[in-house]
Amino acid sequence: MEIKTATPEMVIVKLYEGALRFLRQAKTCQGEGNVSGRATAIAKALAIVGELQQSLNLEEGGEIARNLDSLYFYVTDRLLEANVNGTVQPLDEASGVLSTLNEAWVEISKRSASPGTGVESGAGASA
Question: Which of 23, 66, 81, 125 has the largest CB neighbor count within 10 A?
Fold first, then answer.
């Protein structure tokens, strides 16, 4: 129900939060030697990042959408490396990027929820 009533910006925030949660799970599994659990958690994070990337409108979103596309590409690369090599550093790098983007979208969602801020819901770049 929460997602059905959420603004588009809050849905994006929830997606980032989900991806970050799966990255924490992957890191925990890595520390426990649970290769299968790590792979599953990374796959779920990859699916979320893929959805965010697919939702970009590169024509209307301009430079912002292109920059987000590049960041999502980078995060995907880091997650694939972490999965193949079983290392934690790429997970940390991906988490850092996603955390920064999440913080930005939290601010955007706060501004779009406040009347008179000049930020319109659903504008431009999408995720």
Answer: 23
* Cβ within 8 Å of residue 19, ≥6 positions away: 44, 45, 48, 49, 52, 98
Nearest to 53 by CA among 104, 19, 87, 93: 19
pLDDT at 116 exceeding the cut of 90: no
∠4-115-11 over CA atoms, to 5°?
A: 25
Q: Using an 8 Å Cβ cutoff, are 45 and 26 in contact?
A: yes
C-alpha 94/C-alpha 71 separation (Å) is 9
Rounded-to-integer distance, Cα 59 and Cα 80, Å: 28
| Predicted local distance difference test score (pLDDT) of residue 5 | 72
Number of domains the chain is built from: 1
Distance CA 71, CA 85 (A): 21
- CATH number of the domain enclosing 23: 1.20.120.340
